[in-house]
Every structure is written in C-alpha cells, then in structure tokens.
Amino acid sequence: MTSVQVDKQHDGNEAADQAPEEGYQRGLGNRQIQMIAIGGAIGTGLFLGAGKAISMAGPSIILAYAIVGLVIFFIMRALGELLMYRPVSGSFSEYAREFLGPFVGFVTGWTYWLFWVVTGITEVTAAATYVQYWNKGIPQWAAALVFTVALFGINLISVKIFGELEFWFSMVKVTAIVGMILIGLGVITLGFSNAGDTASFTNLWSHGGFFPKGIGGTLMTLQIVMFAFLAVELVGVTAGEATDPKKVLPKAINTVPWRIGLFYIGALIIILSVVSWTVFKPGVSPFVAAFQQIGLPAGAGIVNFVVLTAALSSANSGMYSTGRMLRDLALNGQGPKFFTKLSKNGLPTWGTGVSVAMMLFGVYINYQWPGDAFNYVVSFATISGMWAWIVILASQLRYRAKANRGELPESEFKAPGSPYTSIFALAFIAMVIVMMGADPDARISLYAAPLWALILGVGYLCIKRRDAGLAAGTAAQEAPGEDAKS
Asked: Which of 94, 114, 380, 471 could form a Cys-Cys staple with 448, CB 3.0–4.6 A?
C-alpha cells in the first residue's frame, strides 16, 4: 500500500486497522520474528567491536551500553506504535513519506537501501576472512562469492526459508552468549580454570576505577555502541510478511530490554569480571580474550564460528531488506518500475538481484583496492543507519500529534512516555553525531553524508521533472478530445 492509497483509505473512512495488501506472502511466524528481532540486536559489533570500546572506556562501557540500550528501546517502541497503526514492509520509509513528505521518504528509502548494500559488502567480505581461520588456502574472493550466491539463492526460494535461516543464525549467537555467561559465572563463583584465581566482580572497579578513562572516554564510545545496535529496526521491515503482525511485532519489540540486558550488559559484566579490562585491545574479540584467559583451547575457534554466523546473518538480512525497500520506492514512483515485480512466491526478485549485484561489485572493489578509499565508503553505514532511527522518531511524533487531534486512528501499541521519550532519543542521536565529528576515525562518515544528500537531491529533481513531463503530455493528449466535444 502506497502513501497515496493511504490518503484514499483515510478519506474513504475504511477500517484503520485493516492490514495492507502488498502482494507479499505472510510467511514469517512468531518464532521466526522473535529470533529475527534478537539477531538484529546481536552482531559483529558485540563480538568484535566491543574490544575497542572496552579499551577506550574500561568497565564504564557497561553503562554506555545500558544508556544506548534505553534509547534503542525508545526507538523501537516508536516504531512499534507506527507498525500497529499501519504494518507495511516499506516500514519507516513509508511512514516518512506519509508524515514527513515525499522527499524525506525518498531519501530514507534509498539511504536505507545503501546502508544494507554497504553492510552486505562488509559482512560477506568479513565472512570470507573468517573462513581463512580454518583454511588459509581458500581465496577470499572465492569464499565471498560462494556466500553471496548461496544467500541470494535462499532469498529467492521463499520468505519462510529466509526466516528459518535467520532463526538458526540467531540461535547460534544466543547459544554462544548464554554459554559464555554460564562459563564465566562458574569461573567467578567456583574458581576453576586458569582464570579462577583472578576472576572476580571486583575487576569492574579495581583497575583504575569504573571510569578509568574518565567520563570523556565513556562518551567517545557511544558511537561505537550505537553502531553495535544498527539493524535492530529490521523487524519493522518484516511487517508486510508477518503472519499476524498485530500480535507478533509488539511481542518482539517488548523483548528489547531483556535482550539488551542479557546479551550485552550481562555478557560484558561477566567478561570484564573474568578478565581485567586492561587486557582488551582494539581488533581483538573480548570473547576470544576471555576464552584464552579461562584456558579453553577451542574458544577461539568457537568464537570465530559465531562471528562467521553473525556476518552471514547480517548479509542475509541485507538481501532481504534491500529488495523490499526498492519495491516500496518503485510502488511510490520513486524508483524504476521493474522493481515492483514479484515472483510466483511473492518475492521482490528484481530488487534483491540488483542489490546482490552491487554487493558482488563491492566485494570485487574490496579485493582489488582494500585501502582507505573502501574504508571511507564503509564508514557511511553508521550515519545512514542512524538516519533511519531519526526518521522513525520524527514520524512517530507527527503521527502521535495527528492521532491526538483525531485526524488519524489511535495505535493499539502506544510508545510509553511519548513525546518526551522520542524527543530525548532524537537529542541523544544528535549528541552522538556531534561527537562523531570530534573523532578522526568517524568524521569521514559526516563528510560522506552531504555528498549522498546531493546525489539524492538531484535524483529527486529528475523524478519531479519526469512526473511533470508525463502530466503535461497527458494533458496535451486530452485537450483535442475536449475541443471536439465542445
């Protein structure tokens, strides 16, 4: 359902809670949606990126994850309110178009598409490098090609297969984290393994205090922590294919607090208790460091397998979301019309295929020129992902204002504390963006954003001119007939 159709629906006083029909098959059940939601919150940002954050902030990184986790919950509840108002696969792009204007919807759709293309490139490339842990003789490009083709094939079969694969990908990540927590608790309380003599909860404050790098060090990690949560909003894209979105999606969103509490905060508390924060270094997984300290020889291999799974899960999600986003853009006249086509199984194969082709080209570029130029492109993922969160919050504020005035039906899943929680989340994201400008490693993403905005602005003007030309041509064709009748 496009934004134009929504306007007609409201004008015609149709049932507000009627599920939109977009041509997709509703093949994602409660079990799969729940695990997609969990998997979206657990990625390489936790398994690998947390090492750099720990080295920058020490034990206070736990507080950073807790604060950002609260902001993420506000964002997800804002998205949930919109989803219960109108569950569509275009999700926040469609809401931006309805509440913030067609240009913002255009920017959001294409930006989120680019976000997942870039993320897919990096994750498939990363997965190929992880394979070399077991067999260095496998060329990186060959492994990346095999992974990309295999995931593309899975995305062409049915949405049920996609959901099932994501279920098992997420299960591996969840099992690994729960296992690490249980082993760590055993080391701390029972004192077994090589780390038994030094493992203690006192490690959280006995090496320079809880803030060994000061408050400033903790603040500078917020952008890293925010990056770790990117893709948590993916559950919103599944709305058009969930079997019972009004029942399943609220359950998935309401699990965000305990997911963050267990998988992020709980895991970090245990890891930093088993191993002093001074041991961690950027580029080294905190899970690997903890397993090595405990003395489990298979630990590094286990974590490498889990990180491989996380990378493939992210790439799989990217292929899923890009096809849906391109089709949503095309349905609203903001993308090529052939993206609207669905396969017999109700899958947007054209959009997914073009996106996968872009991913393969990116893998080739990374293989040929793995230097700074490619890293600059990758750094854009952070700012483009946060743009989606900004749009979700802004759209929810506009929707709530209209609903309060009686112009739109009330959502069955209101965001608690809104509008204050949404305003707080927007202010927090703005603060993180400003802080990114103070970090030389992250600043490049802020440079890339205006360039991308310029490209989108030109593209939108071209579309407006095309539409104006089509309208003028139609008027010219109708004019002679009207004169003849008169």
From this structure: 380
CA–CA gap between residue 17 and residue 409 (Å, rounded): 8
Are 252 and 413 spatial neighbours (Cβ–Cβ below 8 Å)? no
CB distance 173 to 42 below 8 Å: yes
* HSE value, Cβ hemisphere, 13 Å, CA-based, for 259: 26
Residue 282 three-state SS = coil
Reported as a single tens digit per residue, the pLDDT across 217-234 is 888 888 888 888 887 887
Q: At what angle do helices 349-368 and 140-157 cross, to 10 degrees?
A: 170
One-letter identity of residue 411: S
Question: Residue 485: what pLDDT?
Answer: 45
Q: How many domains, in total, are found in the chain?
A: 1
The pTM of the full predicted model, rounded to 2 decimals, is 0.86
Q: Is residue 317 part of a domain?
A: yes
pLDDT category at 319 given cuts 50, 70, 90 is confident
How sure is the predictor about 166, in pLDDT bands with cuts at 50, 70 and 90? Answer: confident
CB-based contact 391:240 (threshold 8 Å): no
Cis peptide upstream of residue 297 (ω within 30 degrees of 0) = no
CA-to-CA distance for 113 and 116, rounded, in angstroms? 5
Distance CA 320, CA 123 (A): 14
Higher pLDDT, 319 or 392: 392
Helix (H) or strand (E) holding 329: helix 299-331
pLDDT in tens, 256-305: 788 788 888 888 999 999 888 988 887 777 887 788 778 877 777 888 88
162 located within any domain: yes
Q: Is 80 part of a structural domain of the chain?
A: yes
Distance CA 90, CA 22 (A): 10
Query: How many residues in the chain?
Result: 486
pLDDT of residue 430: 93
In degrees to the nearest 10, what's the CA dihedral of 206, 212, 214, 218? -100
Beta bridge partners of 269: none
Two tokens, residue 291: 């397993």
Tell me the residue range of the domain where 263 lies.
30-461
Token pair belonging to 61: 């990184």
Q: What's 290's domain CATH number?
A: 1.20.1740.10
Residue 274 lies in a domain: yes
